[in-house]
Amino acid sequence: MTMSRRAFVKTSAAASLSVIAASAKAAAYPTRPITLIVPYGAGGPTDTIGRIIAEGLREALNGTIVVENVAGASGTIGVTKFYRSPNDGYTLCLGNWPTFVLNGAIFKAPYDVTKDFEPIGRVVTDPQIIISRPDLPANNLKELIAWFKSNGDKATQATGGTGSTSHVAGILFQHKTDTQFAFVPYRQGVGAAMVDLIAGRVDTMFSVAANAIPHLKSGAVKAYAVTAKERLGIMPDIPTVDEAGLPGFYTANWHALFAPKGTPKPILEALNAALVTALANPDIRKRMEDVGQTLPPKEQQTPQALTQLLKDDIATWWPVVKEAGIKNE
């Protein structure tokens, strides 16, 4: 059926008004506090990064950003709450490699990480550091591997839960080094795991730099290697895995901002612009670098770059997770 001229004019006018209304709404955005869901417990590395970037966004948007910690099930509880939030730009999520890549291959969640969210932009990336309780007798990575082989029946490694960055890295480490140890998952994340590591209740952990650096500086934990090609600028005495005797064992975690699917495009554009502004803020940059984070170049701060990163990581890591038999138990 051919649309009449009058109907066409009415439809076009309605569409134009909708675009104008959305643009006007974005121009006034935000008019009330924005909630940033951090899908892990308070005190962990994602919480630290979330609170730093929240301050940058507050200044860039001239609005209020409230950080809400929603921990459990390796981040899936928080992401599920985020998935069910209104798509009006007032609920965001600080996702990362485990929650938006690994969990998609491990958990049966109500959402699809490949199509149910709007990427805003990448915030930071950081490698992991292999650490232990301070009194563990091994003094370098080769000695640590030997210690695992001699104590496989009682050695433990703390993780942030099934499918977390620390868990996946630990499984790959076992395969690469032919070692065994028991995993101890922490529902509240690696912040809680670090407390037990310092107290000596668990032996080792793969920790992202943001979580490990303060405790390494105080001497509360011991470091063996950084899982990257280059040493950390803030902790230059820690060798890379290549230097320490486990060449090519590279693992890194990234954090990024997401909005619910269907969030108006003008609001997404405003949020990305605010993120770019925040990441250019010298104070925010320094605070991120002080906890071992690498900030992406400006061309990698776009929604398109984040979309490609997700696609590439899913293609790389989903087969690894499935081959390793990592399941939600």
From TrEMBL:
Organism: Pseudolabrys taiwanensis
Annotated protein name in UniProt: Tripartite tricarboxylate transporter substrate binding protein BugD
InterPro entries hit by this protein: BUG, Bug_dom1, TAT_signal
Alphabetical list of Pfam families matching this protein: TctC (PF03401)
Keywords: Signal
Family note: Belongs to the UPF0065 (bug) family.
Signal sequence bounds: 1-26
Domain of life, per lineage: Bacteria
Gene3D superfamilies with a match to the protein in the record: Bordetella uptake gene, domain 1, Periplasmic binding protein-like II
Upper lineage: Bacteria, Pseudomonadati, Pseudomonadota, Alphaproteobacteria, Hyphomicrobiales
